[in-house]
Amino acid sequence: MPDTPPLPGTPGAIDTEVAVPSPGPASAPTPRRLCDVHALGGADPATAGAVWKLTESGRQLDANLVHLPAHHCVETHAEPDLDVLLLVVAGHGNLGTSDRTEPLTGGALFWLPHGSTRRITARADGLSYLTVHRRRPGMQIRSRPATDI
pTM of the predicted model, to two decimals? Predict the structure, then answer.
């Protein structure tokens, strides 16, 4: 009985029509671990502000891990240009919007659309959260516009 080749997709089969991706050029960016948000979220409870920032060159996103100590808050403000994702990493708090208050608990993910107002308040155990948004373009030096005299 003659040997018959295995059917495509079965063990031992060689499928000549399936493209195998090449590893790409040596300069291609590669994914990598940036930090442990749980470890940073549980850091010094008295620390306030950004405890981690995305700083990689060539990035299209900005991200910050922010910690608010017990009963501290980020006052009411609006982000006019950028949508923001907010992921609660540790602790508890409240997200005040123009029409309601939402509880902030570990694992909660919120979309904060551009133009919306928000106030973030930590409860007694503090609050750590990650924000992610499109990167703002850097400041540029431009010539002053001409004015009529």
Answer: 0.70
